[in-house]
Amino acid sequence: MSTLLSVKNVSKRFEVNGRTVQALEDVSFEVERGECLAIVGESGSGKSTIANIILGIYGPTDGDLVFKDEALPAKRTQELRRAIQLVQQNPLSSLNPRRSIGASLRLALDVHAIGDRTERDQRTGELLEEVGLPAEFRTRLPASLSGGQRQRVAIARALACQSELVVLDEPTSALDVLVQARVLRLLKSLKEARGLTYVFITHDLSVVRNIADRVAVFEKGRLIELATTKAIFTRPENPYTRRLIGAVPVVSAQEAALKDNIMEQENGNA
Ligand SMILES: Nc1ncnc2c1ncn2[C@@H]1O[C@H](COP(=O)(O)OP(=O)(O)O)[C@@H](O)[C@H]1O
Ligand SMILES: [Mg+2]
Question: How many whole angstroms from 48 Cα to the centroid of ligand 2?
Fold first, then answer.
């Protein structure tokens, strides 16, 4: 595997009413081509801040980012905006309510000049089908879709222009559990079919168990543990990681035993 993105010693401070908020502190990690790296942590741990920095919505206070062996500039080129895409928690706020689904997808293709006119029209239908929606949804407005369908549209838009790295910030957190599972399956198959790289952000460790290759755990702006998903679930090293796993619903007897074990350790530590 080769490295697609490196985050090097990134810190981010916000000044709010004369007070300094340290949202990220000396965070370093690498994202390998073709992997799904999960970023997990409680609310306020800095997850969306690192997403915004990767997307170039704002820059870090300190530190550097390297994408495909080149430093990521503060002002992103068109090519970089094409290559790195975002899927947010709430597609209602990211999709223009007055624009049809087809027009939203079409806009992404137009901006990045993918194909000619007729190809783009055809492509919007194909994109919808790729995310499990009928091509006829082109004419619908976002408000007439369910939450899960809207999130599929947001995913289709992120994939429209042959993106390479997709940052998913709590993509299933607003969906109910069954819809969540279906969207996760879709994300997993799209990743495999297109050879995508994901940074998958969530406050809920159980969400990433089946999709993540590795998990980075954030606590109060610091990266406190990074390991393979298997290692995180079977031998978490940090007490904070153990607590996060303790909050995950149990699925197998083996995991139940492990969870009891971890809870005991936690109680023992308290
Ligand atoms: N634009 C901002 N201005 C001021 N403080 C911010 C801003 N964005 C995030 N923060 C603060 O930075 C910390 C991390 O926030 P965030 O990255 O959104 O956490 P998470 O996504 O893990 O819930 C929080 O204390 C939050 O209040
Ligand atoms: Mg967030």
Answer: 4
Residue 84: pLDDT band by 50, 70, 90 thresholds?
very high
> Which of 21, 57, 90, 223 for mutating ligand 1's site (highest number of atoms within 8 Å of CB)?
21
**What's this model's pTM, rounded to 2 decimal places?**
0.91
Range of the domain at 66: 3-269
Q: Locate tokens 């994901």: which residue?
A: 198
Question: Degrees (nearest 5) of the Cα angle 231, 235, 241?
Answer: 90
Residue whose CA is at the smallest distance from ligand 1 atom 20: 44
Mean pLDDT of 22-45: 97
What is the number of structural domains in the chain?
1
Q: Which residues pair with 3 in a beta bridge?
A: 32
Residue 113 makes CB contacts below 8 A (sequence gap 6+) with none
CA distance linking residue 218 with residue 247, whole number of Å: 16
pLDDT at 269: 45
CA distance 126 to 135: 7
First to last CA, the chain: 41
Q: How far is CA 267 from the centre of its chain?
A: 33
- Pocket residues for ligand 1 (CB within 6 Å)? 14, 16, 21, 23, 41, 43-49
CA 183 to centroid of ligand 2, rounded, Å: 19
Distance 158 CA to ligand 2 centre (A): 19
What three-state secondary structure class fits 215?
A: strand
Label residue 235 left, alpha or beta by phi (over 0 means left) and psi (-120 to 50 means alpha): beta
50 CA → ligand 2 middle, Å: 9
CATH of the domain at 32: 3.40.50.300
